[in-house]
Amino acid sequence: MALAGTLAVALATVTALAPAASAGTTTVDFGSCTSSNPALAAPPPDYSSQVTLTPSAASVAVGSPVTITWHYSLSTAPSPGIPIADAATAKAAIVVGGAASTTLSAGPSAAFPPAPVATGGTFQIPDFTATFTPTTAGTYTFTPGNNEQDVAQFGIVIQCAASGASAAATVTATNASASVGSAYVRPGGTVGFTGAGWIAGETVTPSFKDSAGTATTGTAITVPAGGAVSGSLAVPAAAATGAGSLVLTGSTSGAVPTAVTVLGAPTLSASPSSGGPGTVVGLSGGNWDPGATVAVSGVDASSNPVGSSTTLTADASGHLSGSYTVPGTAIAAIGAAELVGGAPSTTLRAAAAFTFAGNACTADAAGAPVSATGTCSVPQSANVTVSGGPLQLKENTGAVTFPGVTLDGTAHNQAGSLQQVEVQDFRGTTDGWVLNATMSDLALTGGPYANSGAAPIPAGDVSASALKCAGNPAGTTPYPSTPTAGSGGALSPTTAITLCSQAAGGTNPPTVTGGDFLVDAGLNLSVPAYLLQGTYTGTVTITLQ
């Protein structure tokens, strides 16, 4: 078949996509090739290619990743050429030796070629990469290994085994290390650092990256004999709080990061959050300076200390925990302040909300004279939960009925009324509501011409007037709401008229809306002078929203 022939031509090019030999780092023999679908694409014969492996750095610190780029030399398209653009992607294995042995997976590459290639034309298989992270010091070698080419469009995978290649690249991993004096710093503070195992003569540049990714670079240091470095770096006052890092980057050894957290404002929480004298309150908090002493006491509404204070010690991560006993004097909150130089800090402070409830008191002192009169009171809370009900409507059963008409060559106006609608708003909110009406055309549904497609009486010939909207006398009064009746008008299948509406209540302070309301409306049907005899039927739709 023509289609099968087209596929065969297209897939035949895949077997020859391997690059032809040209200048490169090492020559690789690829053989024992296999195809996942030999019927559509036969595996290629053995071939040789030159591959260049390029590491992103010649020397890195242990634990620092290095990128290895695989580059094929230029390729030549065999007969009948490559008629399909972006036909394939390439992958390969890179064999690691030397200080440790492993195999890396490189790729996939971008799709190639970017455009069809005629027989004998050249194209470039795009470079692709692998990442290697040394775990021990030493020199590592990188040798091209088995390769793979995938044609996703046809589900073809062609794999070839590599042999005869020599190491194409080396990377030396050093024992460069870094540490900080404290893993926590405040915005505007300073991070002290030390390092060891760096290469004498290389430059090491300190930098700090905050949780938002903003980097601050310090002054570069030339590594002396012995490989030790030390220094400090100022953290910007605008540094984002959260997990950051101090990074020492060697011109040869690469980057070594160390975690540093930028502390935010101290926090304090209390449980329980209310109680009377003698209540033991559990405290917890964060973002305090590690190891800091923190003074805790009750405070009044002006944040002045009440009663005696106690001290707590932040742990190595700046977390605070402990307890506080409520004094006999009323307090408005529980406050905490970090002691700096023995004095409470004016900035490193936090407070936990607390409701003082004096649930015990003494009316008369012990031994008071019989004639003595004292007073004593304690609060006792009272609570009730109020759940909102529905917004709903009900209507009287039955249809809207207009008096019958006998045709006499004149138009007739027939009076009717909407079946009464009851709106009940029991939500307990400040929300309003709207009651609307639409109507379909009155179709001819009875008589000798019923359901024949005869012209209907348009819905617009029905108009609403004398709208009423008031509280249900049978319900509970007074109601929070006073709804407004609509102005009426002609009904329509598409454009609603408002029968009744309730505006939203106030918001500051919030004003509840609600109630039980009855809605009535008079209707008038204008019957044309001439139309087919029979029964005309339409539907009035009442919508509450």
From TrEMBL:
Key words of the record: Signal
Keyword Signal carried by entry: yes
UniProt-recorded name of the protein: WxL domain-containing protein
Signal peptide boundaries: 1-23
